[in-house]
Amino acid sequence: MDKLTQNYNSGVFFDELIDATGKARAPAQQLLEYLDNLPTEELEKRRITAEATVQEMGISFTVYTEEGNIDRAWPFDIVPRTIAAKDWAITAQGLKQRLTTLNRFIDDLYHDQRCIKDGIIPEHIIKDSKNFRPECVGVSPKYGVWAHICGTDLVRDEHGEFFVLEDNLRVPSGVSYMLENRAITKRVLPELFENDEILPVGAYTSDLFDTLAALSPRDIERPEIVVLTPGIYNSAYFEHAFLAQQMGVELVEGSDLFVDEDDCVYMKTIYGPERVDVIYRRIDDLFLDPEAFHPDSVLGVAGLMRAWKAGNVALANAPGAGVADDKVVYAYVPELIRYYLNEEPILKNVETFLCDNEEDREYVLAHLDELVVKPANESGGYGMLVGPHSTKKEQQLFAELIKANPRNYIAQPTLKLSTAPTLIGKGSLEPRHLDLRPFILQSKDTYVTTGGLTRVAMRKGSLVVNSSQGGGSKDTWIVDTKGA
Amino acid sequence: MLSRVAERLYWSARYLERVENTARLVSVYDDLLYDLPQNVVEISWYNLIEINSGVEAFNHRYKVRDERNVVKFLLSDDDNPSSLLSSLTLARENIRTTRDVLPNEMWELVNELDLYAKQNIKQGINRSARHAYLNTIIEGCQKIIGLLAATMDRDAGWQFLILGRYLERVDMNTRILDAATSLMMQAQPGQDMELGQVVWSKVLKSQSAYLSFRRTMRCSIRGAKAVTFLLNDPYFPRSQRYCAEQIKLAAASLPRAGIVIACADKLLEHTRTVEHSSELNTEFSNYLNDIQLDIIALHHQITENWFNFQKGEAA
């Protein structure tokens, strides 16, 4: 019988499970041995079980199309991605270092702006940032922390080194899929969980609860925490409901809350109004409060900014935190780490060209066919140019966009993203590119997820992992190989 | 519990009950029309539109008041907000957004029912398969009620489901009694005995009350007895008294219930018996109208008390 991994070859790319000589990497050894001994029929059975489990558990996400919104089942690959625990420990340190810095930076921007005065970051970058909120100047959230929940996208290059691709500090999503991926995998490959080498991921929701509870402005035993969702038609509604349920807190919509004359936030319950202490909001800044931002927003709560500024309610993430997830600011993060912490960055940035900078811009315009160009403030993989996969016409369009608004564009070399074996068709493993989104929590304490959400570009050769654009996902195993 | 969640639960129960009642009503009417003595009275499918306060919407849409149009209007029309399919869609929407407080299987069951109802709607409209179609709908509703009874916590959410279900049920009960009464008043002198037998036994059947009536009342089926049973029987789960008692009980285990309990008490006070079939006249019709007003007031109080919320009345 042919072994499943026999003809597997990831070419020039770093493969997460199998090294260049075709041997299993240490953390993947047991997994691959197991899969190699599984008959094709049995493997197919497991794949079908996974599909059925996704359906049964109702794991879905919403895609917006011209024909309306479609609730799609979560595309899932049953072959887990493995990472050695000792490698992960260093990465996790790097993530903590990074979020600590970003929070110092945000707090600085809304107070003394020392980093600008000391010449670390140019003033106009902040002044022109779409996500800088003058309304937040002078506000001091608890612990000086603004970004409580951060999803950082990591990629591995051809040598297997982790790089930070971007920091998501506004309303990052995906953590529920990380938890569900594990739940599915436990059903599909239960035999592999019999030894304790795969570290558990289940602590996230209780860590999130602790992180949020520590933000309560009132010193009471059971602070009232809520998850604020834009509603059922939001693409991440499944996750909002999941997190609220797992934490045992209310899932509320804007119309469930109001701010009273005492500048406190209340929710409308059958017992009467109940005061709310902490709001984990999954609504963008500008929709939070029609009094302060978009006056026609029906998603938010009138007076919420007033209540927050008065210190009567905590918002996670704090309004204005998004200023640090600008892709231009991103380029300065290594410098900011040195500046605020006096430490060397543990995790590197991907090389980044700022179109705002004349020399960089000239280079970018001359190399549009090689580079990936991204707008500074988009998420979900929208509005990007992937040079090597683009037409001359698209490149021309981007050249014009860049010239018209250089501050809004950055460019990065096309990355040689790492791959992992992915089940494509019956009994056939093929390399597919992937990234990793760990989640970092910070308030009184700092937590990093064990691994994170691995997203896979399911199409051959594709580098786009976003679920809105044909990406899938797989379980992520941090494997403790006991020093191996 | 959030007021919004409570309100959605209340409405999901009302719509689900409406689905079942509509199916029962059409089903029994089918049966009734075949059993009526020939030419005793002008009775038509259109009576069903009057029972359901659908006159304006129906006439807006249809010119011909025939069986097909009436059944289409009651079962499938989008622009009739109370049609079986409209009610089922609304029940499903309300359940979709309250899944976290309901048993897991609830969503699956209501989806199943919704799919069946939509895919097979033609069977409901054409006479030949109508009975089977409506029966499947009724069974689907009962499956959901059974699931809830067996698996749901008796918390505030449960009480709102009870409020919604029994309010809708008592509402339909008065409508059916009213329809039968007005039908009987149209009867020619001398025909009323024969007609009464048919009409009142169908009324009891539409409420699944036929056997229970037989066991409890131990008498032949007469208007006064049937009406008394459907208004005042303390044990039959579709009678006015029973529904009002259930509403009162559910309200009593919810916070700040005083005014709602008072409303339910009023409905109970107004729940009466009928001594003789000759009392089933215009005056009785007016009485049923007053009961409708009591029910509207009760719904209004439930809404104001727990769902609509005045800013500033701090807890």
Automatic annotation (TrEMBL), chain A:
Record-linked Gene3D superfamilies: 3.30.1490.270, 3.40.50.11290
Protein source organism: Marinomonas aquimarina
Domain of life: Bacteria
Record's protein name: Circularly permuted ATP-grasp type 2 domain-containing protein
InterPro entries membership: ATP-dep_Glu-Cys_Ligase-2 (IPR051680), CP_ATPgrasp_2 (IPR025841), UCP005522 (IPR016450)
Any matching Pfam family: CP_ATPgrasp_2
Domain Circularly permuted ATP-grasp type: 80-457
From TrEMBL, chain B:
InterPro entries cross-referenced by the UniProt entry: ATP-dep_Glu-Cys_Ligase-2 (IPR051680), DUF403 (IPR007296)
Pfam families named among the record's database cross-references: Alpha-E
Chain ranges of the DUF403 domain: 1-307
PANTHER family in alphabetical order: BLR5612 PROTEIN (PTHR34595), SLL1039 PROTEIN (PTHR34595:SF7)
UniProt-recorded name of the protein: DUF403 domain-containing protein
Provenance organism: Marinomonas aquimarina
